[in-house]
Design a protein that fits this description.
This protein is of the alpha+beta class. The chain folds into 2 domains: 3-95 and 209-312, no CATH class; 124-188, 2-Layer Sandwich (Alpha-Beta Plaits). Helix content is 51%, strand content 12%. The chain is built from 13 helices and 9 strands. The chain has helices at residues 19-24, 34-40, 50-59, 64-76, 95-117, 137-149, 167-177, 199-206, 209-223, 226-235, 242-260, 276-294, 305-312, and strands at residues 3-6, 13-16, 47-49, 80-83, 90-93, 125-130, 153-156, 159-162, 183-188. The strands form 3 sheets. Strands 7-8-6-9 form a 4-stranded antiparallel sheet, covered by helices on one side. A hairpin with a 6-residue loop joins strand 4 and strand 5. Helix 6 packs antiparallel against helix 7 (167-177), helix 9 (209-223) packs parallel to helix 12 (276-294) and helix 10 (226-235) runs parallel beside helix 12. The chain is flat, with a radius of gyration of 21 Å.
């Protein structure tokens, strides 16, 4: 009998059978973070409607108390503001919330754009240096974390590097945190670290490329049979209910995020070939499209809907 699997916060809804499902886990076996589900219900403008959220949460095995607790945390963190009560409540993203939601989508767009082009580097290293005083420790820590979120790597204390054009984003965050006067940006095409100058060798030294690759390989090993399973369902004219599609979308999304969150999305020129991250993303895109096609509901699923817009741009 088929077990449900699917892709979530970078989303795929699908179904798998046999050993695939056993290895991937089921909703009862895998702890589903309520935060992933709640943020996955955000509209393009950053709005979350409680009237849409609660039915989806219920289908995914989340209780109303779990959802309410998560929403309270998001409001307390300054990411959303609430208007209305109960299931009529509307949660609107603040500027900070919009930045958090947009960052994930921008990262996805970058990943698929690099995959499609097969390249993405102009052979220039971008450097950010900072010497933020201890009196601004919280801002210093937040700025450092932001550089890491952008895929940067530490060369040494207070000096970070990226092959991407990240200066505008980094300096914007420095201004927001009130530490711009302590930050320096520079670029070079001649970077040497510990006597090493070869770009691929530098990338392997600075970023956990082998670990990221191993995680992607594990993801592929678990889910590579899903597109064929879905194609078979299509040939048999079978459909996915929301009770199958929605929990499955969350489960595989969590598994993919374990890979994607660690991935600095280095340009293809700096990665081993073939790179499993590209294959994993192709697997995601194909599974998501097939899963949506097989849903009993004919409207576009609200869960991870903005992600579908990213996939729509992929040839």
């Amino acid at each position: 009998m088929a077990e449900t699997t699917g892709v979530g916060s970078t989303g795929v809804g699908s179904t798998g059978v046999g050993s695939t499902a056993e290895r991937a886990g089921t909703p009862d076996e895998l702890e589903i973070p309520t935060r992933v589900l709640v943020l996955g219900m955000a509209h393009h403008d950053g709005t979350i409607l409680a009237s849409e959220l609660y039915p989806v949460a219920e289908a995914c095995g989340q209780t109303a108390d779990q959802v309410r607790s998560c929403l309270r945390r998001l409001v307390a963190e300054g990411l959303f503001v609430r208007s209305g009560e109960g299931r009529d409540a509307v949660f609107a993203a603040t500027d900070a919330g919009l930045r958090a939601l947009g960052a994930s989508l921008e990262k996805a767009r970058l990943a698929y754009a690099q995959d499609a082009a097969g390249k993405g580097w102009d052979r220039t290293w971008r450097l950010i240096a900072f010497a933020i005083p201890e009196t601004k420790r919280a801002a210093r820590d937040a700025f450092r974390d932001h550089l890491l979120e952008l895929g940067g790597a530490a060369i040494q204390n207070g000096l970070y590097v990226s092959p991407h054009r990240w200066h505008d984003d980094a300096l914007r965050e420095a201004r927001r945190l009130g530490v711009a006067e302590h930050v320096t940006a520079a670029s070079t095409d001649d970077l040497e670290i510990g006597g090493e100058r070869d770009p691929r060798a530098l990338a392997a030294k600075l970023w956990p490329i082998e670990e990221v690759a191993a995680r992607y390989e594990r993801f592929i090993d678990i889910y590579e049979g899903i597109p064929e399973d879905l194609e078979q369902m299509r040939r048999q004219r079978r459909r996915l209910t929301e009770a199958e599609f929605l929990p499955g979308a969350l489960i595989i999304g969590i598994k993919f995020q374990e890979c994607f969150n660690l991935d600095p999305l280095l340009p293809p020129e700096l990665l081993p070939r073939p790179w499993p991250g590209r294959r994993a993303r192709e697997l995601l895109a194909r599974s998501r499209r097939l899963g949506i096609l097989l849903r009993e509901e004919h409207n576009k699923p609200q869960l991870f809907a903005p992600w579908d817009d990213v996939l729509d741009t992929i040839p």
